[in-house]
Amino acid sequence: MIIVLKPHSAPEKEAELRQYVQDLGFTVQDIAGESTHMLGLAGDTSHLSPETFSRYDIVDHTIKVRESYKLANRRFHPEDTVIRIGDKTLGDGSLAVIAGPCSVESEEQILSIARDVANSGASFLRGGAFKPRSSPYAFQGMGMDGLDLLRIARRKTGLPIVTELMDNAHLDAFEKHVDVIQIGARNMQNFSLLREVGRLKKPILLKRGLANSIDELLMAAEYLMAGGSHDIALCERGIRTFETATRNTLDLSAVPVLKAKTHLPVVVDPSHGTGHWNLVEPMALAAVAAGADGLIIEVHNAPHLALCDGAQSITPEVFHTLMQKLHRVHDAVRMD
After folding, report:
1. Tally of CB atoms within 10 A around 176
2. 83-333: CATH architecture
């Protein structure tokens, strides 16, 4: 529900109304426009009626919001959310590129790739320390040792690190040492994990589930925001369809749909979205043209030897050329 206030309402009256709303158990979000001031109510408002607030003479009218997600809703937060980590940003109109290997394999490997992607203009370093794999016999990542190597790479390159959290048992380590916590597709609806991660109030990259709708992705973000985290980026990484030519079906229409529905930044993963290294470039360029705020791209210095997802990884050389093309497309679609 949105409470629309009358123009030039007295601040003390607004404070009284806000306290009343909070006493009812709702989270209050200020929505300020050029000539309007509104209060957004997050919570179960199904039992409320417009008459609930009629005794307050500063209330002009109320609006029922049909969508279940409130905090993630653009109607509650018209301005785009900008995530800032040091001098790196996501969602401010610039193009943020997260790059690195699917999994951390050794110190030499992660340092070599980190230096290469940093030199090519990447904003963040990705790398899996803990890997969710379909097969129990596949490489599962280096665990805490891999996280330590990511920290070394961050120290030597200055790139903030993005890595996936799979288990509540590692919350403390991720809170202390990870810049952006990734919630993978398989955990998008792991609500107990979302609640705990939300309480950390750290930047989060939330990936869309393999067979989840856009509204379900936004409800997962709502879990995180209800816990207290507001620096959340949504990631389209392909959904499962009947098509077998690609690993997944990359839903690029999700980018403008999400940009209309939510204020949160939108990132696209063309690596998992296609599963083929030669499709990463065209889909990355298309994602930028569609309005994505960022990309997450798998880069490996020896894809044929990669312990995880080598088929969808591009080399540092290919990445360097791609970065030049991406910025040209980004500049072109944002021309006045």
Report:
1. 9
2. Alpha-Beta Barrel (3.20)
